[in-house]
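Researcher: I'm preparing a figure for a lab meeting and need a structural model of a single chain. I don't have an experimental structure, so a prediction will have to do for now. The sequence is pasted below. Please return the structure as tokens so I can convert it later.
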Amino acid sequence: MWVGIFDKFLRHLIRDGDLKLIFADGQVRRYGDRSGETVEVTLHDPALPRRIILSPDMAVGEGYMNGTLTIADDDVYGFLHLAIRNIAAQGQPWFRRPLEGLRWLKRRVDQFNPATRARSNVAHHYDLSGELYDLFLDADRNYSCAYFARPGMTLDEAQEAKKRHIAEKLLIEPGMHVLDIGCGWGGMGLTLARDYGAQVTGVTLSEEQHAMANARAEKAGLSDKVRFELMDYRDVTGQFDRIVSIGMFEHVGVPQYDTFFDTVEQRLTPDGIALIHTIGRSGPPGATSPWILKYIFPGGYVPALSEAAAALERHALVTTDVEIWRLHYAQTLRAWRARFETNIDKVRALYDDQFCRMWRYYLIASELTFRLDNQVVFQFQISPKQDAVPLTRDYLYRDGTADAAPQAAE
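Model: Understood. Here is the structure written out token by token.
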């Protein structure tokens, strides 16, 4: 029965391309219009068709991790390119829609992130070996979308351009007090202190990030200008001239959006400016892949513009600018994957083969979601004051280029 349903599922789904599927009993079936390169997949477990029908993301991801699903030449990119572009075009067949409805109903439970759960979720991903992140990130350890302001930029150049672009949007002046919510390993905070003369407080729930960020500040001689706290953003007190949050809003969850923006509202000075940089979906609200929730980002959720905007509207904050980056994260992820694959033997020495397959699958699937399924990055610039920023974006390009370096602050 399940093989028959599975066959209908794939005939509905795979219409563009050529999928050759070898079942556990040796049976071979083809799907698609036979265009392009053939992607050959073998299911070694007879239970996989049923599991894929019930939860495609989980079953395929786990199958690849565990070796019960293999791809000829280990062409994960080719397989996921075929799958994601067809899913984006065709959507789910009618008989899977009730299961997708249940996943939708469950999403608020998945996204419920009180402080104790948030700390555990952060530790799952960000408290991995620090050496792992050195193997694929840029030198400044920016684990968020880079800004490819001009063709041919390296990953390190594009990450520097991202920080400068954000700093320009914040209109930073020497001596300003800045709160960095979800400060990571300190790259943005150190840049604002060193290059713009700001006084920065960064908060993170990751013990690994907290220790390294403070060590970096001390090494750079910036401990008098930057301090990083192991603290939930909801526990921050005081007021700040500027607030920046890069790649953290994806971990907040819709049930906490009002709390997040209430914190921003309460912590900003009356003429302050905040910049929230987050992955987003250009379509309507959805639900996070169960595989991503279990193995990569527990509690994570990528918001629709409508969800973030609705929460903002309930607070005394003016949205002064919304910028959307489209394929920048796809380029960033491609660069990360290239570095990860170059260093995969070192990753294997830190963990094991299954971890390598899991992270390679994660990086490829993420890149292709940005390329093929309308995932983007939102930058919300907000303030309690309507005229806190200039009336046009010309100030962002006053040096003549989008990524011109600032003069070092005195």
